[in-house]
Design brief:
By secondary structure, the protein is an alpha+beta fold. The protein contains two helices and 21 strands. The longest helix is centred in the last third of the chain and has 35 residues, at 225-259.
Length: 261
């Protein structure tokens, strides 16, 4: 009974964590390029009284053992990098990646960080920057008497001037990772490379398995509200059931104590 108390407590803690994960997913249902997070559970150690295959008598083996687990825990969280639905914004500097890949932006500490959020703007120097003011890498600058900006699916950036002439002003590249789920989430729609993610491979959009760029679109969050609501109900019911198991254990302990009075 005492073991049941601690075992049930692990279930309550794990499903409280799951509720936190689901809540974060739902909170980011409208975050551009957000990827939903999935909590992964793992059972704990087992108390084995009889091992499976042990001899019950000479030459006779038990077909199954006698064991009881110690509960559960959340062993990891992983981001699910499924494609989000592109939403048409009509802005010439909005970009959506169709397929694998990340935009590269320059972090203030001098490193390169990565994002699926393609809502870029121009800063005072005419450079393409994200909403935090971080420069797109490689840097692309748009200056002069420009009446239109065109970004091809292969990342080529060109401008059209009022006299009708066009000029190529930059080339956007994308990076892919062997294990994008291993990227470190920095918040603000940014990721950082880790040893688990592997080394980034940078190339031209649309080539070698890298996704293409869609100008005038933004990738929406891949959170499905219905799925998260189901997960919310599962977490709530599992938490409630574990609390009932604790109450049942307490009642059994109370009954035992009353016997010896």
């Amino acid at each position: 009974m005492i073991k049941a108390l601690y075992t049930s407590a692990t279930g309550m803690k794990a499903h409280q964590f799951l509720l936190d994960v689901v809540s974060n997913n739902l909170a980011n249902v409208n975050t551009t390029g957000f990827k939903r997070v999935q909590a992964n559970f793992q059972d704990l150690l087992y108390d084995k009284s009889v091992a499976a295959g042990a001899e019950s008598s000479q030459g006779v083996q038990t077909p199954s053992g006698l064991e009881v687990g110690s509960g559960t825990r959340v062993v990891s969280t992983s981001k699910v990098f499924t494609q989000g639905v592109p939403q048409n914004t009509g802005r010439s500097l909005d970009m959506s990646i169709q397929g694998p890949g990340f935009f590269q932006v320059s972090h203030p500490d001098g490193s390169t960080v990565y994002t699926r959020d393609g809502s870029f703007q121009l800063n005072s120097n005419g450079e393409l920057v994200n909403s935090e003011g971080l420069r797109l890498d490689p840097s692309t600058t748009i200056q002069g008497d420009v009446i239109a900006i065109n970004i091809g699916s292969d990342g080529t950036v060109s401008t059209q001037k009022s006299d009708g002439s066009t000029q190529s002003v930059g080339q956007i590249t994308l990076s892919t990772f062997p294990n994008p789920a291993g990227l470190d989430s920095l918040g603000r729609n940014l990721f950082r490379e880790t040893t688990a993610s592997g080394t980034p491979q940078t190339g031209t959009p649309g080539l070698n398995g890298i996704g293409e760029i869609m100008q005038g679109f933004l990738e929406s969050s891949n959170v499905e509200v219905v799925t998260e609501l189901v997960n919310l109900i599962v977490a709530q019911r599992a938490y409630e059931t574990s609390s009932r198991a604790i109450r049942a254990s307490d009642e059994m302990l109370q009954t035992t104590s009353q016997i010896i009075r």
